[in-house]
Amino acid sequence: MSKAELWKRLTTFMENHSSRSYNYKEIATRIQARSMDMKRQISEVLKEMSEGGVLETVSMGRYKYKHAGSYITGIVELTAKGSAYILSDEMEGDVFVSFANLKHALNGDKVKVLVYARSRDRRPEGEVIEILERKRGTLVGTVLGMGSYAFLETSGKQLPYEIFLPSDHLHGAKDGDKVVVRIVNWPERQKNPVGEVIEVLGRPGDNDTEMNAIMAEYELPVKFPSAVLKAAERIPLEIPEEEIRKRRDCRDTVTFTIDPADAKDFDDALSVRVLKDGTYEVGVHIADVSHYVKENTTLDKEAYARATSVYLVDRTIPMLPERLSNGVCSLRPDEDKLCFSAIFRLNKNAQVLSQWFGRTVIRSNRRFTYEEAQAMIEGGEGDYKQEVLLLNDLAQQLRVERFKSGAIDFDREEVKFYLDEKGHPTGVYFKRSKEANKLIEEFMLLANRRVAEFIGHPASGKKAPTFVYRIHEQPLPEKLEDFNRFISRFGYGVKTGSRKALTTSMNRLMAEVREKPEQNLIQTLAVRTMAKAEYSTDNCGHYGLAFDYYTHFTSPIRRYPDVMVHRLLQRYLDAGRSVNKEKFEEFCKHSSDMEQVAANAERASIKYKQVEFMADRMGQEFEGTISGVTHWGFYVELEESKCEGMVSMRELDDDAYEYDEKNYCIYGRYHHKVYQLGNKVRIRVAKANLVARQLDFELVASPDSPNGAPEKKNDKRRRGRRK
């Protein structure tokens, strides 16, 4: 048996018996190695495996499998040069994999990696052993060249090298066209795969082409299949009287919607009335999508596959066909609509005295924009002003109580673009949440929390049935430590001793940085420090909101989990049996995954508009803040527009720079200049690559130091001076 084969066999054995330690004789017996030569070879290989970090020596001659070494599973993050870093939860830091050792793994693929190089001077290196899960089946880009062959230059960070397109694989695509391509062949040792055009999207620079290209890049559908549209058309707008008789009739109660000015899918409404005893009845009415979209129908399968609506800069790609999202289900004023409602009786202190969940019929009296409702809150006049002010007063009390309980206030401003008639960005503005937004937010949170509690915390002695929760785990201590270390540069800090101490100090921090230049940077890092919220049948509460039980009940037009919650809630109201946990956990995972894909597409559309906006400002200089640091350079967010671009490590030619992941910086090996997250810099716009959606900046100077960046202290020299 060769040494390589023995190495592999021993690795498999030790991995399968990772809880125990063995000496070479015990292993030889277990793998039935009887000859002395074989036993000697086992002893030698075990020593090499220990030196290489695959095994650890627990005592003289005894070895144990070392989990942080050998094989790991992770996600591929390709670099511009074709090599990659593997991000894994199974070890600290990332693993470098050269192009030759990638086995044609692509960006986002889930892979199994053999980690084989470890030293103090070099990061872990490895080799892809197996591609476990392909992230995507198609790629999007621009056709370059014609004649007997052409190439595809991919958009974004899909692939750092071109795809060869034979002339008979172009299928009508012309030089410069944006297209969707499928890889059909990839010779083992060749860098460039062979592709085939499966869809021509249009000409680059056209707004529709670019937005459709982003959707295609993330394999999100732009259009509904004809069968789905036909199924939607068959749903009547009229509500049968027999259906109304089955429901609680809320049409006589003052009800209204408050939404963005450009919204068309109104999936939530509020009603309010004062009861005889002086308490208030507040209804949170949600479009009853589950009444129209039945399980396992054509409409349901399409909604599940999409899982969420996608919000690009200039358009919405809905989860449901327009007939449903903007018509049948939308809670438009002066129309009878079917809802699933949460109705609460509250006292003047906004404490819930009683609650009711069930199906209703409503009739909205008024459609408000956020601006209209805000004007009344600030003293203006308008329809149903007293009702709006009453709800606002109750919402503010709910909000105060929520923060007292430990909720974190991540009230970040949104960057929006002014677009001309062709979709070209002409300016930037910032959108902030005001009282009218928070009014709606608090009652949606109340309904979501109370529905989750109702199912997840039943009467004593009863077991909670399977349900869909929106969970948010507590942040990892090491992430909090890194965050604290970074914000200390600005003179800030958070307390991490307990949950209440953390949330109180985090909220204080968010208030302190408001209107400061570092606000966006610190808020972004604070959000990254937190775990990601996701869907699960296993409830662990929602850390950020400080709720022990939480779900998504209030947006079924645009989120599939809410549709599931409506179905499950009605099932359990009808005393139905618990559903299959494994099946619904799979549904939850799919919904969480699609939510992330949609968020990535939305960010890509924003990034494209940023590059398009800055392309008109080539050569101009701007002030900015270092917002990200990587192996290949650092990102700078501009103060004026919040657009982000990169200063490449290649452009920093005054020293040999190295990346310090732990301290969020890159530093010069010889002159000790440091570029650290949060540093103020002045840049010049050097390049705007619309195809790659990438802005390249040139460093002009940093206000932090006369030389353009702060100095990194040289400990040896400092100690020498002390002597």
Q: Overview of this structure, please?
A:
The longest helix has about 35 residues, at about 580-615. This protein has 18 helices and 34 strands. The N and C termini lie far apart (about 60 Å). Helix content is about 30%, strand content about 30%. The model is unreliable at about 705-723 (pLDDT under 50). It is α+β, with helices and mostly antiparallel strands. β12 (about 180-185) and β13 form a beta hairpin. It is globular, with a radius of gyration of 29 Å.
> Strand share of the residues?
25-35%
Number of strands: 34
Structural class: alpha+beta
What is the molecular shape? globular
Descriptive tags:
disordered C terminus, alpha+beta, 28% strand, 723 residues, 7-stranded mixed sheet, globular, 18 helices
Summed up:
With 723 residues, the chain is an alpha+beta fold. 31% of the residues lie in helices and 28% in strands. The strands form nine sheets. A seven-stranded mixed beta sheet has the order 14-21-20-17-16-15-22.
Write the layout of secondary structure elements.
Elements: H1 3-16, E1 21-22, H2 24-30, H3 36-51, E2 55-59, E3 62-65, E4 70-78, E5 84-87, E6 94-97, E7 110-117, E8 125-133, E9 139-144, E10 149-154, E11 163-166, E12 178-185, E13 194-202, H4 207-217, H5 226-233, H6 241-245, E14 248-249, E15 255-259, E16 268-274, E17 280-287, H7 289-292, H8 298-306, E18 310-311, E19 316-317, H9 322-328, E20 336-346, E21 352-363, E22 366-369, H10 370-377, H11 385-404, E23 414-419, E24 425-431, H12 435-456, E25 469-471, H13 477-487, H14 499-513, H15 519-529, E26 534-536, H16 560-573, H17 581-615, E27 621-630, E28 633-638, E29 644-648, E30 657-660, E31 665-668, E32 674-676, E33 680-689, E34 694-701, H18 715-722
Parallel strand pairs: 14-21, 15-22
Antiparallel strand pairs: 1-3, 2-3, 4-5, 4-7, 5-6, 7-8, 9-10, 9-12, 10-11, 12-13, 15-16, 16-17, 17-20, 18-19, 20-21, 23-24, 25-26, 27-28, 27-33, 28-29, 30-31, 31-32, 33-34
Helix pairs in contact: 1-3, 2-3, 4-17, 11-12, 13-15
